[in-house]
Specification:
The complex is a heterotrimer. By secondary structure, chain A is mainly alpha-helical. Chain A has 11 helices and no strands. Chain A has a single domain, classed as MetI-like (MetI-like fold, Orthogonal Bundle), CATH 1.10.3720. The longest helix of chain A is centred in the last third of the chain and has 38 residues. The model of chain C has no long low-confidence stretch (mean pLDDT 87). The chains are: A mainly alpha, B alpha/beta, C mainly alpha. Chains A and C meet through helix 2, helix 5, helix 6, helix 9 and helix 10 of A and helix 2, helix 5, helix 6, helix 8 and helix 9 of C. The complex binds adenosine-5'-triphosphate and magnesium ion.
């Protein structure tokens, strides 16, 4: 009757034989078979794509054949164009995340720890945080032009909001009783910060960081599509202008791969962080 | 109106898989319950009382042995069998009234009007008239439990299983609801099975009291309560029967913690047994 | 409480920063300490705002954007709930579709726009599809979480009372998952607005909308218009957010104040 093991919702008249069978299959084999099952849909779609192309259901300008996409991907990779554009995009992400999360953490800690700062800044920040980032871009263009500064500024904007919110919330939501313990043992301010606030808020600090990176990723592609002459987004704009849809597909695929890798590595770090926290306790 | 049913439990065994190991929770439970009988079950925590009810209600089909209702094997749940779970299990998004209405949701015998009336009656029965449109988060534990009792009763099942339904109630409400339960039982002739930790309650309401023992859960003894109703809790016969059940109940070492506690006590007072005997 | 008390009890310190900034803005432009072509004076923004608000075509732009936004949101929201419920209910569906869904979700939203606009053109259908995609992911994801989290105890209650499949969905699954579904819809509403403005910026040459107008302001170096447009975009976003929070609080009143 424990609610902790939450199974899929019971469904009347569900056939149960599979559920009985599954535990007997070895853990590794099960995982492997799940992975295989997960590949069914992409493979089917790929098959459909190939089928549609060979039977000329859709004009080739609108749907390039899979092998053409693959070929373009390889050519772009071998010529180094893909790597250089990707490197530019990733460095934009890197700088913006660095700048944006630094600002976000500072701001978050400040308004989280100081009641005065909170009273003065939080209302404005709350309104500011609800403005969509894309809305800022035109005004940033006016002040910064359309060069590198624009991209870094716009993407940093996207990072600041989630990082600040998560940091602030993480600090404000620290359980009172933890702080009381610190009071009982007469911790100094620095001790409270380092031994209570920081560890207790760490999960939300990290989750804000993760959201920030994902927002940066969103904003990056947007500004690169809007105003850029290099980068992975530009590659897509270029492909679209030349009506070379294979390039656009390559762009989507590369963006997907980077997105998945970012997500996986962030998850990995998060799980390491958590196990480290548990080990420390 | 419900017609009561014979419930036959034959050689029931139930295991749970806990971390790959098979844990025997019920072993060789056999019990025959006559139509309209009131059976109380007592036993220490963890001896499988809730599990037994879960099997009877039909929520679990992985067991050995037979469960027959009027000679028919119990398969799955049915509106003919009702249960008050140990935890109230109200839907938090429904009001008191709507939660009780869930009991009649799939009842095809009553008209909408009759259903509404019946829900109102049961709200009053459990004394929650002023809370009809309150949400569960606004209720105390005891009030929630009363809603759960009303939800189970409103459908008038043939067999009603009650898993410590009065556990969270104050003594006054508890006595009142015991009376009401007995009244409904006498009037409707429902077969009732009541799991309780309160031996007095078990003796007061039951035609028989089943005492279970843990690890694995088995029936230790069945005590007949041949007293006429209304029973007088302070009569000599009542007290004697209560003592009898209590004795059975008491010399099963209860849970692990209690077992440990007993050992600790023994260590501290080596002559505890003499003291107890005295 | 009287109005005066309400005003007095309010923490007005939060107003200091915006008022201060406004004052600085006013002073630096009034004394022309900055290039007023770039940093336009606030009163000029107000004037432009007045011109535009009284202008029928601007109202038309706003309505066009809102219609687009909400159509996309509704489409994406419904699709998201359907997929989320299906993923949460069926282990096998989850195993087959889940991995693909989780992969596609990582593709930065705007990357779809070049593809969509090639296939569907730059008109409303492309924009609405894109907007619905942006609302779809958070709704599907959160709905899935909600449905997965339904407790076994509640399912047992439903079985005891003989719920049919339809009742399972409407009386258990949807209400039990409603906190997460509403969270998803709230996020979806925010994303849909970002996507609306973004799509209008990027597909500037077709149709009308708030985003088109603002971007045209940039091309014409009409800074007043840009500032004003940005404020409108921001306040629409904030308004949606506010409405969504209110609706959420209303619908989830049964949770007490744990929210
Ligand atoms: N779903 C389950 N999976 C594994 N073990 C279980 C499960 N449900 C119950 N058990 C185990 O079965 C035993 C009996 O549990 P049960 O809930 O029936 O006890 P109980 O007699 O009702 O106890 P209590 O008086 O405390 O309610 C316990 O040891 C419990 O740990
Ligand atoms: Mg129990």
């Amino acid at each position: 009757m424990s609610d902790i093991t939450r199974p899929a919702v019971y469904w009347p008249n569900n056939s149960k034989w599979l559920q009985h069978l599954l535990p007997y299959v070895g853990g590794f084999a099960t995982r492997l078979s799940y992975a295989a099952v997960g590949l069914l849909l992409p493979l089917a779609l790929l098959g459909l794509w190939q089928f549609a192309v060979t039977h000329e259901w859709i004009a080739i300008q609108l749907l390039p054949p899979p092998e053409l996409v693959w070929q373009s991907l390889r050519e772009l990779w071998e010529s180094g164009d893909l790597a250089s554009n990707l490197a530019i995009s990733l460095s934009r992400i890197g700088w913006s995340v660095l700048i944006g999360s630094s600002i976000g953490w500072l701001l978050g800690f400040w308004i989280g720890l100081s009641n005065t700062a909170r009273a003065y800044l939080y209302p404005s920040f709350e309104v500011f945080s609800q403005f969509p980032v894309v809305g800022w871009v035109p005004i940033l263009i006016i002040f910064l032009g359309i060069d590198e500064a624009l991209k870094i500024a716009a993407i940093s904007f996207a990072v600041v909001v989630p990082v600040t919110v998560a940091t602030y919330k993480g600090i404000v939501n620290i359980p009172r009783n933890l702080l009381e313990v610190a009071q009982v043992y007469r911790f100094t301010r620095i001790q409270i910060l380092l031994r209570v606030v920081l560890p207790a808020a760490l999960p939300s600090l990290f989750s804000g960081f993760r959201q920030g990176i994902m927002q940066a990723w969103l904003a990056l592609v947007f500004v690169e599509l809007l105003a850029s002459s290099e980068g992975i987004g530009y590659l897509m704009v270029w492909g679209r202008q030349l009506m070379q849809l294979d390039l656009v597909f390559v762009g989507v695929i590369v963006i997907g791969i980077v997105g998945v890798s970012l997500d996986l590595s962030l998850r990995w770090i998060e799980s390491r962080l958590q196990s480290w926290r548990h080990a420390a306790h | 109106m419900a017609h009561a049913a014979t419930l036959e439990i034959k050689g029931l065994n139930k295991q749970y898989q806990v971390r790959g190991e098979s844990l025997s929770v019920l072993e060789d439970i056999s019990l025959s319950i006559k139509p309209g009988e009131f059976v109380s079950i007592v036993g220490s925590s963890g001896c499988g009382k809730s599990t037994l009810l879960k099997l009877i209600i039909g929520l679990e089909d992985d067991f050995q042995g037979e469960l027959l209702l009027d000679g028919n094997r119990i398969v799955g749940t049915s509106l003919e069998r009702g249960i008050v779970f140990q935890e109230h299990r109200l839907f938090p998004w429904l009001t008191v009234e709507q939660n009780i209405g869930i009991g009649l949701l799939n009842n095809t015998k009553l008209s909408e009007e009759e259903k509404r009336k019946s829900v109102q009656e049961h709200i009053e029965l459990v004394g929650l008239k002023d809370f009809a449109s309150a949400y569960p988060y606004q209720l105390s534990g005891g009030m929630s439990q009363r809603v759960a009792i009303a939800r189970a009763l409103v459908n008038r099942p043939e067999v009603l299983l009650l898993d410590e339904p009065f556990g969270a109630l104050d003594a006054f409400t508890r006595a009142y609801l015991q009376q009401e339960l007995q009244r409904i039982w006498e009037k409707e002739g429902i077969t009732m099975i009541l799991v309780t930790h309160d031996v007095e309650e078990a003796v007061y309401l039951g035609d028989r009291v089943v005492v279970m023992q843990p690890r694995p859960g088995r029936i230790k003894r069945i005590v007949d309560i041949p007293l006429p109703r209304e029973r007088n809790r302070s009569s000599a016969e009542f007290v004697a029967l209560k003592e009898e059940v209590l004795r059975e109940f008491a010399d099963t070492p209860v849970t692990e913690t209690e077992l440990v506690a007993e050992l600790v006590v023994e260590e501290a007072y080596p002559n505890i047994h003499e003291l107890k005997a005295a | 409480m009287s109005l005066i008390q309400t005003i007095r009890n309010r923490d007005w310190r939060g107003a200091a920063l915006p008022i201060g900034l406004l004052a600085v803005w006013y002073i630096v432009t009034a004394f022309e300490w900055v290039n007023t072509k770039l940093v336009v004076p606030p009163e000029k923004v107000v004037q432009v705002a007045y011109n535009y608000v009284t202008h029928a075509s601007f109202i038309g732009d706003v309505i066009a954007s809102l219609t687009r936004d909400l159509s996309g949101f509704v489409l994406g929201g419904v699709a998201g709930i359907l997929l989320g419920v299906a993923l949460g209910l069926s282990r096998w569906f989850e195993r087959i579709v889940g991995p693909s869904f989780n992969t596609l979700k990582q593709i930065s939203l705007f990357a779809w726009l070049p593809l969509i606009s090639t296939w569907l053109g730059t008109g409303d259908s492309a924009k609405i599809l894109f907007i619905s995609l942006s609302a779809f992911y958070p709704v599907a994801l959160n709905t899935f979480d909600g449905v997965r989290g339904i407790s076994k105890a509640q399912i047992e209650v439903a079985r005891v009372y003989g719920f049919t499949r339809w009742q399972m969905v409407t009386r258990l699954i949807l209400p039990a998952a409603s906190p997460q579904i509403l969270t998803g819809l709230h996020l979806g509403l925010i994303y849909a607005w970002v996507a609306t403005i973004g799509a209008e910026f990027l597909l500037i040459r077709s149709g009308s909308g708030l985003g088109n107008t603002v971007i045209q302001g940039r091309d014409a170096f009409n800074v007043e218009l840009i500032v004003f447009g940005m404020l409108v975009i921001g306040f629409v976003g904030a308004f949606f957010n506010h409405i969504a929070s209110r609706i959420e609080a209303r619908l989830l009143a049964w949770r007490g104040d744990q929210a």
